[in-house]
Amino acid sequence: MASPKPSEQTSFLIVGGGTIGLSTALHLSDRGYKHIVVLDRGDSIPSSFSAGNDLNKIVRAEYEDAFYATHALSAINAWRTCPIFRPHYRQTGYLVASSSTAPPKVDSHISRLIDSISSHPSYPTSSLTSLPSSAAVRDKIPQLTGQVKGWSGYFNGHAGYARAAPALRALYNELLARGVKFHLGTSGDAIAIHPDEETARFFPAPKPYLRTADNNIHCADVVILAPGAHTARLLPSAGAQLTAKAWAVGHVKVSAGEAARLKGLPVINCRDLAFFFEPAKDEGGDTWLIKVCAHGGGYTNVPENTSTSIPPSNAEENNAILREDEALIRRLLLEALPEFSTRPLVRKFVCWCADTADSEYIIDYVPGYENLVLAGGDSGHAFKMFPIFGGWVVDLVEAHAQKESRWRWKARESDGKEDIHWRVGGVKDIKETIRKGDDVEAARARL
Ligand SMILES: Cc1cc2nc3c(=O)[nH]c(=O)nc-3n(C[C@H](O)[C@H](O)[C@H](O)COP(=O)(O)OP(=O)(O)OC[C@H]3O[C@@H](n4cnc5c(N)ncnc54)[C@H](O)[C@@H]3O)c2cc1C
């Protein structure tokens, strides 16, 4: 059941000041709402628990599904024009390819991406170049020093990447300036919803309040849950439709001279191996880094005697990657930028998001409560929507109901192991990383 239509006096409590939570706060503020409080368990924003707290994220509009392509084109427009986001967007272009060993699924996915985007009425089709051979890939992107043997795909000039952590920080600062209140660390760590879902069944649509780790209580006219991969910890029923999954990330240090040579490099995404970006520095940092992220089906973390994947509470467990993933990363470098393929990978970690079985977001009221909203199910593709995602959450609250059926709360059970049509590889459990360890030498030996 939905809460009454909001007014300027309506109070909003957002749990999670990550990609979706901050975007929601922005759109609430843009539409004139004055009473906005954000809780985040991180000690600062961007939070160390946020999937968006990263050097960079791809911003592109190719989706097999024109629905998301349309939204992503709007998001790109916002990245290019909105003063908060514009400084953090780099329109370097985007190369999508398959390697010589890609399964057929990858090439058919790439064909559907090309069909979808090239027929989209708002896409500037002159930005798309077909690259049917490795020679065509090398001609288009001369900074690639590798042979890219057997690669084929396309280049999209109307795409690029966002400097993710600085974009989150910029919006955080903007929200502070607008009077949005934040509770961070222990005082922002929501540990329980009252009444919990079991108890809520015995009341007619209760209004929930949140208890934080400092034992304080927070309530509001509308409570919006946006804790990303951590959602099922707070709201166990969401675990039936959201699976916390992680992917491996590593970085290669490069010199200032190497960074200068690679300046303007498009995002290189070999869909069956991994993807990497133009070298970038952390804010205030002096080290140039190439971020590389492995593809695959992702990791889950299903604790013993449970059936729901949630990110490990011990952050240390996230600071290792499987040797198979390191091998994917190294093979991509060997094929595209071989001079970096044997350099140590630094800052290795796994990054968690909330996957749904059909990769659809979930933006809806939580059944059983009067005014509790879930904004999540990012499925690994929500950062690009950072400038606009919150608008959909505010639309929901103002309309009292989710008109877009694909974003509704889904009662259906997901075991998190479904074959996601645009991903390659099976789902593994993160406990494997602990058992196998961070075996770099073995990964190298496999190349
Ligand atoms: C490896 C990897 C690569 C990706 N690459 C891309 C890409 O190139 N392009 C793209 O568009 N998307 C990409 N994504 C997806 C993108 O990062 C996510 O879709 C997006 O960040 C999800 O936003 P969110 O707000 O749901 O979660 P998050 O950004 O994770 O935010 C959740 C917030 O909730 C807080 N929180 C959690 N629990 C609590 C609690 N109990 N109380 C208070 N606060 C809490 C956390 O501290 C965090 O700040 C990638 C994801 C991964 C994993």
From TrEMBL:
Domain of life of the native organism: Eukaryota
Keywords tagged on the record: FAD, Flavoprotein, Oxidoreductase
Domain FAD dependent oxidoreductase: start-end pairs: 13-396
InterPro entries: FAD-dep_OxRdtase (IPR006076), FAD/NAD-bd_sf (IPR036188), MTOX (IPR045170)
Cofactor(s) the protein needs: FAD
Record-stated family: Belongs to the MSOX/MTOX family.
PANTHER family hit by this protein: L-SACCHAROPINE OXIDASE (PTHR10961:SF26), PEROXISOMAL SARCOSINE OXIDASE (PTHR10961)
The protein's name: FAD dependent oxidoreductase domain-containing protein
Annotated source species: Neocucurbitaria cava
